[in-house]
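seq:
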Amino acid sequence: NASAANAVSGGTQYFSDFSTLNASAANAVSGGTQNFYGASALNTSAANAVSGGTQNFYGASALNASAANAVSGGTQNFGDTSALNPSAANAVSGGTQIFSDTSTLNASATNAVSGGEQYFWGASALNASAANAVSGGMQDFNNTSSLNASAANAVNGGTQYFWGTSALNASAANAVSGGTQYFSETSALNASAANAVSGGQQYFYDASTLSVLAGNALTKDVTVNFDNRYSGPGGTLRLNGYSTVVGAVRSLSAGSGVIEN
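struct:
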């Protein structure tokens, strides 16, 4: 139980089975390396509880961030089926979080992720299930990873990059209402509800796609930006037989973009 500043500031600590590290003071974990295995957990219940060091999560271990700015620094690596569970506003406001395998970032509170840098590899996922769950920071998706926006305004800030066959799945009205999203290679934005994408800026490069999977999945406030400066058609708007409103379609390079019915 780390209940004082710099309680854990160096060395290497190992947690296994159902053991826990409870960080309940500012800068409680400020250095060293902490390794979590099995169903062990790092529970952060104070602002800046984790401000430094490196935390590695394996198996079904978890980092539970239940206070504003609970995770404000350091580097957190998530593998296997481990998870980062921010359940308070601004719970993740800094640091670098790296997800691989099928690990997840479960953003279930308003402004749960408001800063820092999050990198997703393998089949990892960011599940944004609350309004404004992702309101800041930078999120980078690779391989088959995904950002699943299942609530109104789930993504309304920050900058998101999609590579490989990664995807942004917008399955609720106004799921994507802000921020800036860049789609490259064969990544996709899948809009499967009416008004699923209602704001922000979306840029499509290479062979990336915007798939309309419901009537009026886009709104008049959406501008689709195509750019073929790197390769391919520079993005495809695939209507899949649906009709939708759209604010504007722009070709940022000559001949960019394809629209398919």
